[in-house]
Amino acid sequence: MRYEQHCPIALAAEVVGEPWTLLIIRELLNGSTAITDIAAGVPDMSTGLLTKRLRKLEATGLVVLRPRRAELTEAGRKLADVIEPLGRWGARHLPPPRHGDLDPALVLRDIAREIDRDLLPPDAVSIHFRFTESPGPRWWWLVLSRSVVAATVHDPKLPQSMRIECTVGTLTRVWLGHADWLDALRDRAIIITGPRSSVRQAITWLGTSRFARDDSTDSDTPILSL
């Protein structure tokens, strides 16, 4: 879309304001470079449209396309200065996600990306999620290790540190800061089954999205008193 204005905001919006483009850039900024990984972050986007958007980003100097891969240029990486504040604004000032926006794969993917691997135990473990209401598979696992953090619907056959039961909506609201871990646990909207020490660790590991954190206060996640 062309606005036919000299305004830099209008010119930038012509490039990044089209549907899906900011989400593609979000995936690239989060470290996805394989086209298949980018596509996994925008599952409702057709392959043809993804290709079209990537080619436009390449034509405007924001992306370099390689066989089955895409990488941000220096100008593309600078968009983090725009997208990070936009994400914080969206999490803090817009209503919680609607039911139709909920997706267990996407929220667990986001959580996995932000886990601090230095806090994880040296040997790989898993967290088993049982979603009592979900638009997709209800059983998921987070594989946690210092080398790999990933969500899967297949039992990884690793030592299970705990089981978490909740709805996808509850987990999403807590992750985005619309609800509090402690309140959800006390109300039994989230039920964690496992050793006492592992429950404390889970809240520390999972925490909340960086977009939900208030920079004016201590961003450390409170530890559950058990």
UniProtKB/TrEMBL annotation:
Q: Which Gene3D superfamilies match?
A: Winged helix-like DNA-binding domain superfamily/Winged helix DNA-binding domain (1.10.10.10)
Q: Which residues form the HTH hxlR-type domain?
A: 7-98
Q: What's the superkingdom here?
A: Bacteria
**Which Gene Ontology terms cover its molecular function?**
DNA binding
Q: Which UniProt keywords apply?
A: DNA-binding, Transcription, Transcription regulation
- What this protein is called in its record is HxlR family transcriptional regulator
Q: Which organism is it from?
A: Amycolatopsis keratiniphila subsp. keratiniphila
